[in-house]
Batch of 3 targets.
Target 1
Amino acid sequence: MSEYVVCTGAVNAVKEVWEKRIKKYNEDLKREKEFQQKLVRIWEERVRLTKLREKVTRENGRVILKIEKEEWKTLPSSLLKLNQLQEWHLHRTGLVKIPEFIGRFQNLIVLDLSRNTISDIPRAIGLLTRLQELILSYNRIKTVPKELSNCARLEKLELAVNRDICDLPQELSNLLKLTHLDLSMNHFTTIPPAVLNMPALEWLDMGSNRLEQLPDTVERMQSLHTLWLQRNKITCLPETISNMKNLGTLVLSNNKLKDIPVCMEEMTNLRFVNFRDNPLKLEVTLPPGENIDEEEERELFGLQFMHTYIQESRRAGNHVNCSTTLPNSINADG
């Protein structure tokens, strides 16, 4: 019996030794595998950094990274070694995310990541205090962080064709130098208050959204000279639009306007306007041009059309003010 116990004990001891050896061997294998994987990652990072360095150029005194139609779904952290970059231009790369370390590129002046698959703007974007242009059109962005308002030098912001953006944080009205804003082809149902309160805004495109009317406060945009509102659902215009004294270009094609209000005749700085493809109640025929060249250059639904329409509506005795509509009985013959 004692011999059996001794034998069993010896076996168990040998088994325990072998289990320890196997465990240690497996741990060594795991560490070796992790070490090899780390070496591979380091090597891949170096290779990617080398490729990125090849895309860096100098133009007009600026250090620029340009990548077009190459697959870069993510950007390596080794990119931080190129923190002297002043412009990024990455188009059609399949980039899915703006890296969180973007805020460490303090020299960035232009960030153009259009035509990718980006779904989110990191809050770290607000650390780019020298940024002047941010172009994120043709992506999948749904919201804009309030931290963007910290980019005090921003002059140009393009968020067109993201499809799902429907509002902007009120804090963006603090972008005191923003002059150019493109919000076309999104889901806006009104002009956001943040936009109405941008003091320097000169150019605004809100075409192909879901606007049904303009707010009375549209007149706040006193610096605006170009306003694109094509392909919306706007049915009427507010009286206050006539107070936009600097407005020179107004595009209202493909909306649901039934009339051109009389107040627009007061907009003496208008140089180009487009009412094409609206269900206007009056059929207006422009007088013939004095010569062939004038006839060819004339915009059929432009400025002259607008003034003629207003005159015709007055002649009919049922001219309209802004935000009102003509009776159904009024027609082109008056």
Target 2
Amino acid sequence: MRDTSDIAEPVDIPPQFTGPARPYPGGDPYADYRTAPFAFDVLPDLADRRLGGAVTAANDEFFADRENLLVPGPARFDPELFGHKGKIMDGWETRRRRGTAAAPHPAPGDHDWALVRLGVPGVVHGIVVDTAHFRGNHPESVAVEATALPGTPSPEELLAPDAPWTTLVPRTPVGGHAANGFAVAVRERFTHLRLAQYPDGGIARLRVHGEPVPDLAWLGALGTFDLAALENGGHVEDSSDRFFSSALNSIHPGRSLRMDGGWETRRRRDRGHDWVRYRLTGQAVLRAVEIDTGCYKGNAPGWADVHVLDATTGADPADRTTGWTPLLPRTRLQPDTVHRFLLDGAPTATHVRVDIHPDGGLARLRVHGSLTAEALSRKPGDGS
């Protein structure tokens, strides 16, 4: 991941890019890509395929498959790549709509749509409809709706007349070869989105940034689970460094399979150390901690220590000097290894901070425990 320290402060209202981009001029296809910092993109992508997100249905995907919308990483472009249907694009692309002989153009409300199941249900703060490499074949405008349905609804159930949909992004013009960002004001928990593009065209990627809100009844039934996991409502609130990769990676599902699959800091040239602060699913009793340095062989931290804090007492997690209780003393770490620590008599906590000494890579953090009765009784969307 590129260093973001020299980028301008994110804007609260994302800029709007409209109209087509210039034809591909050759060379770096991203050289004329239109984008800007967004205040919400520090939050995890709730639709991330790695979290279980999926595009479950679309009315048309003639030129390019709907599943491409949620592929991790930026869209790729090969100017020489063609198939029997035409240019092969890394995104979702529908055929050109037609009217009638008397009125050959699409009607004003004609559009294509795709249904997206969020990998992690939650509160959406911002959406990016990325039209990278779709320069003159992007939609004129887009709209996004959301719903919250229990269980695993089918596309037919989602499209039923009585399904309750809420507008997150009203129909809005977008630009070609651009990151079209939209801040979302609705603060409700959703499980599915419906993306509409008017009248047709191509969208490379869809990113849905927000706060995970898990099913507390399910977690309560499990008893002990990973309280830091993104899929269970855990979150990275802050970290000292994200030069090579984001600390959010450290709470993704499964083990890291590559060095860029975890959190890695730059090499320190001072006498300090790096750290990351996690907000747990809720107030919990902790039972065990795993620190995984998988795939970090010559760049694993030398040591780590762990502290916890209970924000329900009024303590401020952002204050690193007060309110924190040592949980694990400074402990030697091995490269490319899962380190497991059983906890006895650990205090209740809502936050965990891991300090690594002096720098390096942390692939995964797992904090196993059980929610307190107070945490299980809170309503979805309430704070810890």
Target 3
Amino acid sequence: MGQAWTAFTVEAGPAPGVAVVRLCGPGRGNMMGLDFWAELPLLFAALDADHSVRAVVLAGTGKHFSVGLDVQEVLGPWLLKLNAETGPTAAVRSELLRLIGQLQDGVTSVAACRKPVIAAVSGWCIGGGVDLISAADVRLASAEAKFSVREARLAIVADVGSLQRLRGIIGEGQLRELALTGKDISAQRAEKIGLVNDVYPDPESLLSAALEMAAEMAANSPLAVAGTKAVLNEEREERIARGLRHVALWNSAFLHSGDLAEAVAALGERRPAEFRGR
């Protein structure tokens, strides 16, 4: 756990075998920029290989868990290559397909980690933040937490795992409501639909509960815990992998649109987008 990271901090928890990973930016609200996506799979591979780590608590730094993808930093270079009249070339579409695959692999590294991961969510958890916590084994929240599968409001089909993983967590009807409306929901609603297991009064009691649960997991046989997670993941991850491939192909073909350009412009101008379906 001694490696230095740009988008994360990693420290030992108070109980043996527990690691605490915090998102730390560098963007506002722990926004997920290029450093985040480059480091995420490396970090969880390191945690997976570290025999001193038996459970992981994943949290944000500051008031929020994460406000989601840094659209300008991650998608900006791709958007600059678009031809306004002819649209993306096959090469540009292929580049986007590779980019989506990289983001998906980062989140999948959390699910694939043999150590159990507990997401402790305070403040906002938006878009990519929901993708990330959906790959955790357990999700807990503080009372002021808010969640949003917001991509449809940005003219994007969510493509990093929430549409695939949440189906087994909150059920089909709840998932369709959140994904098709892009609405924000409270921690209390999140608990009601099963997105989080429990809600705690404040971020301090949330972290304490997450650390206590992680300590319980870390005290068990690491072989049995890893085996249990592998068995639980088996059928689910095969289904998820198919869904991830499908949405990556879909977005590489259809992401470029007038609606996407309008969403980016509206975001920069801090105004509601006006979508025309073209």
